[in-house]
Design goal:
161 residues; alpha+beta; 3 strands
Length: 161
C-alpha cells in the first residue's frame, strides 16, 4: 500500500456515501485527486502568500474537510490555532483523518476534545470567502468550495479511475 503523510491515512477506509462521488474510493483516493488541483487559488486567501507546491495542503483545510464530509459523511472538527482560527479535519465514527495535516510538518496536533465546525459559520468568515455568492438568499458557500467540487466532478468525469 502506498504511504501517505496525512494524519489517519492508515485507517482511512471510509466508503463514499454520496452517489455523486461514488467513484471516490476512500479518503486516500480523494487526497490523490485533490493533490492534482490544490493551488494558490484554492488556498485560503489569508495564506496564499505562503502556499507552494512543496506545501500544497497549506490553507486547504476547511474546503477539503467539508468536501470530504459531503463525500464520506461524518463531522468536521476544528483545532484552535493561534490567532483564533481553526484547522479542520474529519471524524466518521471512530475514524479520524486530516487530509491537510502535512502543512504543519513536524508539529503534533491534538485531535481530541475539539469543537464541531459548522459549514455555514466557517464559510461566512471574510478570510475564507471570496467574491462569489449564489443567487439563493442566505447561501454563503464560498467560491473555493464550489471550485473544489467542480474540479473533483470534472476529474471524476474525465479521468479513468
Amino acid at each position: 500500500m502506498k504511504e501517505y503523510r496525512f494524519y489517519g491515512w492508515q485507517n482511512a477506509d471510509i466508503p463514499t456515501v454520496n452517489e455523486e462521488y461514488k467513484k471516490v474510493k476512500n479518503p486516500r483516493h480523494l487526497y490523490d485527486l485533490l493533490s492534482e488541483i490544490w493551488c494558490a487559488d484554492t488556498c485560503a486567501p489569508r495564506m496564499r502568500d505562503g502556499w507552494s507546491k512543496e506545501n500544497m495542503t497549506l490553507g486547504q483545510c476547511s474546503i477539503t474537510a467539508f468536501l470530504a464530509q459531503d463525500i464520506f459523511g461524518g463531522e468536521v472538527y476544528g483545532i484552535r490555532r493561534s490567532g483564533g482560527n481553526y484547522h479542520c479535519y474529519n471524524v466518521i465514527g471512530d475514524c479520524i483523518f486530516d487530509l491537510t495535516s502535512e502543512q504543519f510538518k513536524d508539529e503534533v496536533l491534538s485531535y481530541e476534545n475539539n469543537p464541531v465546525q459548522s459549514r455555514e459559520v466557517h464559510f461566512e468568515k471574510e478570510d475564507v470567502q471570496v467574491h462569489e455568492r449564489h443567487d439563493e438568499p442566505g447561501d454563503y458557500v464560498g467560491y473555493i468550495y464550489v471550485r473544489h467540487r467542480c474540479h473533483i466532478g470534472n476529474l471524476l468525469r474525465c479521468k479513468p479511475l
